[in-house]
C-alpha cells in the first residue's frame, strides 16, 4: 500500500514539475534567463579583459577615486549613491564598488553599498506603490517603463531576481513592482540577491583593477 502511494506521489510530483516547466516556457522565462546570463558572462568577461589588457592606457582610477574621497566626504558619496539607486539607477553601481576598494576593509564597504542599494530598491518600490496610484503618474510610469511592466507581469519574481543580480535597471523594476502591487514580503526576500551581485562584481573588479 505504501509503495503504491509512493509511486502515486512521485507521478504527481513529476506532473507538477512538467506543468511548471511548460508554464515558464510559455512565459519566455528560460529564454529570458539564458539571454541575460550570456549578457552577464560576456559583459563581465569583456570588462575584465579591458581592465586587464588596457590598464596601461586607462586613467589611473585609484587616483581619481582618492581625489573623490578627498574632495567629498564618504557620507556625501554614499548619499549620492543611495539617491541614484532609489531614483532610476542613474549612476552605474560598479563605479562605487571600485571606489570602495581604497578603504581598509573594502568588502565591508561593499556590504554597506549593497545594503544601501537594497534599501534604494525598497524606496523605489514605495515610490511606485504610493505615487504610482495617482492616475496621471501611473499613466506616465506605464508609458516610460512599459517594457518593465510587461516583463514583471509575464515573469513575476524572476525579473526581480535577475534585476538584483544582473546589469538590469534595478530601480525601475522595483518601481514597476510597487506600482503593480507585487507582494511586498516576497519582494523583500527576492531583493536580497542584490548582495550577491555586489560581492560577485567586487570580487571580479578587485582582481583585475
Textual characterization of the structure:
This protein is mainly alpha-helical and 209 residues long. It has one domain. Helices cover 81% and strands 0% of the residues. The protein has helices at 2-26, 29-53, 61-71, 74-86, 93-100, 106-130, 135-144, 146-155, 157-165, 170-179, 184-191, 193-208. Helix 6 (106-130) packs parallel to helix 10 (170-179). The model has no long low-confidence stretch (mean pLDDT 79).
Unreliable segments of 5+ consecutive residues: none
Number of domains: 1
Strand percent estimate: under 5%
Taking all residues together, what is the mean pLDDT? Answer: 79
The share of residues in helices is over 70%
How many H/I helical runs? 12
Oligomeric state, counting identical vs distinct chains: single chain
What is the CA-based Rg, rounded? Answer: 21 Å
Number of strands: 0
How is the secondary structure organized here?
Elements: H1 2-26, H2 29-53, H3 61-71, H4 74-86, H5 93-100, H6 106-130, H7 135-144, H8 146-155, H9 157-165, H10 170-179, H11 184-191, H12 193-208
Helix pairs in contact: 2-12, 4-6, 5-12, 6-10, 6-12, 9-10, 9-11, 9-12
Q: What keywords describe this structure?
A:
single chain, 209 residues, mainly alpha, 81% helix
Give the gist of this structure.
This protein is mostly helical.
